[in-house]
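Project channel, design review

CF: Before we commit to the Fibrisoma limi BUZ 3 constructs, I'd like one complete example in the thread so the newer folks can see what an input/output pair looks like. Taking WGS project CAIT00000000 data, contig 7.
RD: sounds good, go ahead.
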Amino acid sequence: MTQPETTPVINILIIDDHRLFNDGLRAMLADAPDITILGQIYHSRDALSQVRQLRPRVLIIDFNMPEMDGLELTRLLLTQHPQLCILILSMYGESRYIDDFRKAGALGYMLKTSTKDELLTAIREVARGNTYFDPKLADQKQFSNHADDTFLKKYKLSPREVEIIRLIKAGLSTPQIADKVHLSPYTIETHRKNIYAKLGISTVAELVRFAVEVGI
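CF: and here is what came back for WGS project CAIT00000000 data, contig 7:
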């Protein structure tokens, strides 16, 4: 007799300095059967140690926090823990903010006016490694720019790898890319090797040709 399939549990950390919102978010997600809240963080300075200790799959991060804002924290966390799936919660829907977070490596961006069902959809999508932007954002499509799920699955590329391909195509060196995306040169070289392996290529010229052909 075959055993029924079980839904993988998504382990989450919530990072928001507003205690009322942080606690309310935890309460809202508490009855989702596939979600476990590992903890709540009220100060961005505590994020690194808690991520290291609790090893979450998904981080829900507030856009605007004292000490270190959500964008800076996203960059710092992904430098040390590139496997993290980060979902941003924000009151701001301006395209420049969303694009900044996308470039920093966040997989999702949701408005704080989202419903419970909308937020659960976003959490489940980013936990799978997919990008997900709030459907209420009028300019959502401009941020996909070949980072949509179909494209990524076809070539087995991550949003971060697509970003690095664009920068290589633009002629940036490894140190320049590292500085631009706030990662170490070693991490950029690792991404480059992974990209080459996935695409079956071995030179920058081949990579640039691929980028031109697919429109990255």
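RD: helpful, thanks. The longest strand covers residues 35-41.
CF: Confidence is low (pLDDT under 50) at residues 1-5, 139-147.
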